[in-house]
Design a protein that fits this description.
- The protein is mostly beta strands.
- Helix content is about 10%, strand content about 40%.
- It has a domain of about 45 residues.
């Protein structure tokens, strides 16, 4: 089991999770793949200009967990 804590708006949160399966990459064409494999970042500046940045990374290994 893995535990992590974070501080958010003055509150402390404790999360615990247990891995349910071995890590694997999402299959192309699935919703999970679409949700996790983002290769572009979009941002706007104070003037309203849109900026696009390419992101290069290996596929994220994912695994089911029980929270």
């Amino acid at each position: 089991m893995s535990r992590s804590s974070s501080k958010s708006r003055g509150r402390h949160c404790l999360r615990a999770h247990t891995a349910q399966r071995r890590a694997r990459c999402a299959e192309p064409g699935t919703l999970l793949h679409w949700l996790t494999e983002r290769y572009c970042m979009y941002a706007s500046d104070k003037k309203g200009n849109i900026h696009i940045v390419d992101i290069h990374h290996l596929p994220w290994p994912l695994q089911q967990a029980k929270v």
